[in-house]
DNA sequence: GACAGTAGGTCTTGTTTTAAGACTGAGTCA
DNA sequence: TGACTCAGTCTTAAAACAAGACCTACTGTC
């Protein structure tokens, strides 16, 4: 299967991965969540090849996860900011972070702690049901084809 | 940066992505969540190159997300099943699926619907705080270095 | 006004990963 | 005996990535 054709699969996971499923994109977005905004900062913090960074940022802008905002005119300079669509990916990123904390942090503990401003506590992410509010795990869920299904999907 | 060295970064996202951040792994895990268990089934459903599939499955077994279970002896045949560590990734996968549903489903609607067995409703995933139980978004969170931090991380 | 520095890239070259598909080997079925 | 199944491995070519040189506008300093 070609990577580009993933976006045409009747599967929302495949479609999402067509955008953020390569090796660098989620790390670029992590930086964006940590308020990194400029090309040089991304490069310095990530250690990513400039060519790859350039391509990734352009794709994320194209897809509407980031927007390019001018912060000076002479010479023209832009910074990259998360859009609402980009912010919507937060649960995925925090989920991966907490999964890594749980399984790979080792004795020293988590590299970063996340505090919920509203309640003031360090938290971990919990998946809940939008309908009843209860905590969800894989075993509580059944799956069936929806209106956008063709043959098989997820 | 070398991909292999990602696992040594003081960042749980990087460590997680070192395992599941390549182009195929999350799709393989999706199939596992849909109860696909055998080499041929993965191949047929995903359209993945056999060589890549073989390598991914071995890595996922190595990392403890899947386990190889013999289901017959002559000839020896194994199937791949999710471990608890693999099941722990469910929030990430369902998060990507719902993100894709929201932003890429188009007019026809979601390819797959997920039902919460406990309450009987189709749901979407909601991220909540482990401490106070409230719904969380990126803007409600602050980040600071934890015990496993070195210089910078997330 | 020459020169260094900054910001945001592009280009080139060589290495890794993937894709596609042929091939292997152990065993079953008819 | 020959066809078929399952679970891979091997080969070759295409695509993606890493590293670093290079380019284009400016700005600020002497």
In short:
Chain A is α+β, with helices and mostly antiparallel strands. Chain A is 38% helix and 18% strand. The model of chain A has no long low-confidence stretch (mean pLDDT 91).
List keywords for this structure.
homodimer, 154 residues, alpha+beta, two-stranded antiparallel sheet, 6 helices, globular, DNA-binding
What does the model show?
The structure is a homodimer of 154-residue chains. Chain A is of the alpha+beta class and 154 residues long. Chain A has six helices and five strands, in the order ααααββααβββ. The first copy, chain A, has helices spanning 12-20, 25-33, 39-46, 50-62, 84-87, 90-104, and strands at 66-72, 77-82, 112-116, 125-129, 141-145. The first copy, chain A, has a two-stranded antiparallel ribbon with strand order 1-2. Chains A and B meet through helix 1, helix 2, helix 6, strand 3 and strand 4 of A and helix 1, helix 2, helix 6, strand 3 and strand 4 of B. Strand 4 of chain A pairs antiparallel with strand 4 (125-129) of chain B. The first copy, chain A, binds a DNA duplex (30 and 30 nucleotides) through helix 3 and helix 4.
How would you summarize the topology of this molecule?
The structure is a homodimer of 154-residue chains.
Chain A lengths: L11 H9 L4 H9 L5 H8 L3 H13 L3 E7 L4 E6 L1 H4 L2 H15 L7 E5 L8 E5 L11 E5 L9
Antiparallel strand pairs in A: 1-2
Chain A binds a DNA duplex (30 and 30 nucleotides) through α3 and α4.
């Amino acid at each position: 299967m070609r990577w580009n054709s993933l976006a045409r699969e009747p599967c929302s996971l495949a479609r999402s991965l067509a955008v953020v499923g390569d090796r660098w994109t989620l790390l670029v977005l992590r930086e964006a969540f940590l308020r990194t905004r400029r090309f040089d900062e991304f490069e310095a913090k990530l250690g990513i090849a400039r060519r790859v960074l350039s391509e990734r940022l352009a794709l994320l802008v194209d897809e509407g996860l980031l927007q390019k905002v001018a912060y000076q005119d002479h010479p023209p300079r832009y910074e990259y900011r998360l859009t609402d669509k980009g912010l919507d990916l937060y649960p995925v990123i925090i989920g991966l972070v907490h999964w890594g904390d749980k399984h790979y942090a080792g004795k020293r503990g988590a590299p970063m702690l996340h505090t919920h401003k509203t309640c003031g506590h360090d938290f971990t992410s919990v998946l809940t049901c939008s309908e009843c509010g209860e905590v969800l795990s894989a075993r509580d869920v059944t799956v069936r084809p929806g209106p956008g299904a063709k043959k098989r999907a997820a």
